[in-house]
Amino acid sequence: MSVLLVQTSAIALVAWLLIRYVAKLARKPKLDMAYLDFEDGDNSLQRYLNSTCDLLERGYEQYLKKGLPFAMFNYMDVSTPIVTLPVKYLGEVRSASASKLSFTSFLNKSTVAEDIGAPLVTDRVIHMVRQDLNKTLNELIEPIQQACDQVLQAVIPPCPDWTPVNGHMLLWPLISRIMTRALLGPELWSNDEWHAVVMSYFQAGHAASQRVRDTYRPWLRWTAKYFEKEVKAIYAARRKGEDILQPLIDARIADAVNRANNSQQKPGFNDAIQWLVDSYMAEKKPVKAAEIMQDVAFLLAASLQSTTLNSLSMLLDLVERPESVAEIRDEISQVYAQYGSWTRQSLGALRVLDSFLKESQRLNTFQFNTMQRRALEDYTFKDGLRIPAGTSIVMPSRLLGRDPDLHTDAAEFDAKRWKRMRDQGDATKFHFASLEDNMLPWGSGPHACPGRFLVQEVIKIIFMRLVTKYDIKFSDGIESRPPDFPQHAGSNPNVMAMVLFKER
């Protein structure tokens, strides 16, 4: 009798969950705005994969430039549309409480991170980057340079003559090692086992996120860890990473204890592992390798892919413009002669390089949208626009940067555009990592990307080394950057593009 009761209860529970799920689908949030789809009627998943950017361009001209929002298919959550807002809502979005419009919730839900064991963005990590990392950036310039020089020797073969190198295969290991050195200290950046773990973690995470999001109903995604090999691979990589991190964590706990017992003792480490350990200990929470692994994995996930793709785009723009290469080289020589070393101050004096990077970012950032948020409750803007709970919102970035009403000669790549603006106005504005309302690659306001200053210095050091050590060009017959690859709401630089290098 008890077995029958258990079976009946289980069936009833499953039926109840199904009814709730179906009812939820039937109650899709009502949006008081236009819904944009493809005019020819082909709204297949493949069409959105390849042509979402075309749809966003139409929506920008048809609605956003008139101050109107629009909704469209949300490939990250097919149960509810995604809303694109015009820039008139920027001030309200950036000042909205994270308890109402949440970037964290958007990111964790869109990547189904919690269901597949991928790293979650947390307030602890964001606070650590904003406070601890940014305060120590000047001390990281020399280690970043050393790492850059050593990795370049490994990823670019000796090239007394013109030698083809894949741009993406050059930049990924270079940025991966440099970011690991900057964020995690000297022990891991040259550790091949660690980098293999990180690579397998990210590869499995990318595959698992897409598969679980596309094939599992939201209420069943928690079961994926029992069936999907990619999800199992994530957990396996996590365990390996925890084993590698454990002795480093133990050393930093011992350092923290010594400092607690001796107020004159200076920290023995200055990296994210130490800052995280200190944070957990300050809250009297146990320091667990599993949590530290997830924290540092998010740090790397947030920095590696976006920095690599943006750097590749900038490299392709630079190779296309040899006159800019010559000007940047001259500036590097002049600034080094003036300062005698590279610090944040002297890197900041590289205004021609800085302007070039920002102009490439304006025209060719791979993200069409930024300022992503998810409404945790019904949210109403001052003009009465209502965003139902559970709805994701974004704002345009790439299309803002290309808008001729906002930028003079917007379609032209003007390498010194931002240098002129700094020379003629406020020198503290218009630099690569600064925030602009008419282009939003870093987001805006208090929730803007907190790691953008590290990214700025890393990219400058990489390009500074590349142009001073090598001549660069495209193969004969190629005069412009290869076309981008559209993918959903992004336009990725061509990861197959080859660049010719020759030692100077």
UniProtKB/TrEMBL annotation:
GO terms for molecular function: heme binding; iron ion binding; monooxygenase activity; oxidoreductase activity, acting on paired donors, with incorporation or reduction of molecular oxygen. Keywords: Heme, Iron, Metal-binding, Monooxygenase, Oxidoreductase. It comes from the Eukaryota. Its cofactor is heme. Heme binds at residue 449. The keyword Cytoplasm does not apply. InterPro entries: Cyt_P450, Cyt_P450_CS, Cyt_P450_E_grp-IV, Cyt_P450_sf. It holds the Pfam family p450. Belongs to the cytochrome P450 family. This is Cytochrome P450. It comes from Chaetomidium leptoderma.
